[in-house]
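Ticket closed. Logging final result for PucR C-terminal helix-turn-helix domain-containing protein.
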Amino acid sequence: MLEQEFLQKLLENMAGTVPFTIHILNEADVIIASTKPERINETTIHITPEGMVYSLDVGPTTRGWKIVIGDNSNYSAMLFGVIKSSYEAFMEVYVAGLHDLRAVGQEERIVKELFYRGSPYQEEIKLIGHLKRAGLNVGQPRIVILIEFENKANRYFNINLDLGYEASAETIKSNVIETIKENRYLTSQDIVARFGDNQIVVIKAFLNVEDIERIYLATDRICQSIYEDLESSNIFALRIAYGNIYRNLSDLVKSYEEAQTILSLGKTFLPKTGLNTWDDLLIEYSAANLPPVIVDRLVKPTLNKLKRKDGTVDMELLHVAEQFVDEGLNLGRTALKTFLHRNTVTGKIEKYKSITGLDPTSSFQHAFITKLAAVYVRLNYPGIK
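Final structure:
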């Protein structure tokens, strides 16, 4: 049974962190799930004075079911609450999924066909048919907005809650789709669908206008509005990004890939979740897409000059130089950000100039190369700080 499979997976995840045994028994007192899988189907259990028995009677399918926990402390009651609420949320998602499968399936099918296409010509004809049957105008320019979930660390339980909150998380993701669809900036011409385990895709349609800048400004506003609608979730942190706008359906996969790139850069360079914009990651995106000639002629020679005798790059010197550029060549603000004395910062900047031949104060090109070199290291050598 699906319910038993879920409960067994839940207890298996708990087994590594819970110091006592947990059994779940059906109405015939047969063990159907346990932190000790070898006990499944047994009918004899010994309940010690330290043990507790709770009822899992939350519906017709679990009538008479029990949870036996080998501990009678408040921790035991907390675990029972986790198991019970997780099971209820799981069943809520399962039942809701049966009712909504047809509607959700249509939009998810369109998204998958957009992003996993075979023969471009034949697939686009088929896709156009799907869009028209769904009442969507195939002639409008569209942009992909990508929303990615990140699990928040739980501060209450010393348990990996990919276990008990899986079902609750699924409930929230289903509710998130409905919340997004109700956003005031979205219309019946837009598609909202899950894509993979932790992403939701919004394919936003726009009217044909000559001023493309207005579309991107509007997309910023839409993304911010969606984030404000969703940020109250206490289980997920969210990142939102978008790609370029395209008029051909076959190009929308590019918009998705561009949004995915921005999200990936955001995880590396922007510690806070939320809206990750092209403005915030302009230099980082440029550094991630440098042509080899720029890397070989400008970036790598700079890094080679900063190598110590042991072959490692002097990252402290590079970090101070980068922060100096970021702070608009202001020594005082650089000192504050790096927690160094102003005179120490001055000395390090002078040393950087002497070693690399780059003077950020005299040339925008030198400042830009300094920033590119620092970003290049973090992108390609993530273990180096």
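Residues 98-102, 154-165 have pLDDT under 50 and may be disordered. No further action required.
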